[in-house]
Design goal:
The structure is a homodimer.
Chain A: H1 6-20, E1 28-32, H2 35-47, E2 54-56, H3 65-68, E3 87-95, H4 99-111, E4 116-124, E5 136-140, E6 147-153, E7 159-165
Parallel strand pairs in A: 1-2, 1-3, 3-4, 4-5
Antiparallel strand pairs in A: 6-7
Amino acid sequence: MKLPDPESLYARLKEQIEHAFPNRSELGLIGVHSGGAWIAERLHHDLGFTLPCGFLDSALYRDDFSERGMKTAPKPADMPFDVAGRQILLVDDVLYTGRTVRAIVNHLFDYGRPAKIELAVLLDRGGRELPIDAQYVGKHEPLKPNQSFVLTRDEQGAFRLGLEEKQGE
Amino acid sequence: MKLPDPESLYARLKEQIEHAFPNRSELGLIGVHSGGAWIAERLHHDLGFTLPCGFLDSALYRDDFSERGMKTAPKPADMPFDVAGRQILLVDDVLYTGRTVRAIVNHLFDYGRPAKIELAVLLDRGGRELPIDAQYVGKHEPLKPNQSFVLTRDEQGAFRLGLEEKQGE
């Protein structure tokens, strides 16, 4: 399969968010480690949000933690604004089962009860296992269960997209 | 506004579910009290599910419990099948902010980790405050914030739909 160009996806996502939130002075932007955090950081820089960017890691909160375990050490959460009563834009790189999003939303509620949480993702690969959906999507690109997108950054900070295929599944 | 006929919406929803789940022998059907429970009961009867129907009440689990309080006494949960590893179809009457769905999904995980949870609703009235969506929808019918749909049943068990409008909001 020909992989989509992640820089084009990012440009499309940025445009959607710019259009949906003409006033970004009170909007709380939160990136999910690691890919979502990179995207949130770039959105924060490119679109000029007033509040600093927040970061969350889902690793410790997913319902399948006991099966997946820790692939990498969880990164510290950073919530530099009040969540209670605030409109929140959550950013992740790839939307798949929805389990990460459920975990992150539950985690967010530990900080306070937001007025609204919306979700922006670079890629929706389908395969949802929970009734969760994103409001802003760079591209819908269905993958097989044994495949996964891998987002990385080059030395200049530009996004690169790879495809991982597990054998024997 | 002209209200949609809830019996036509039900017929449309039933058809979607019949088509999406040709094999209903292992599917766990769960209705959310009260309206969702009525719809789930009818689906269970009309489509011939093998497992008994489950029921949940969101009142105690919503994140705005302290603001809303108890309008009516919560109905007891009834989960007559194993949730762990199972495909679940959650049924509610109206999808609005998504807060009820989040509460119900979290509550479901107290029983075990389902393989998949999908959501069916008679009406999606828009106004989401969480990144939640339904897979099966009788109709999308946006309402104003001061309006709400009220589903009732007549003596024969047929659905009736009303519109409630709060003044001064």
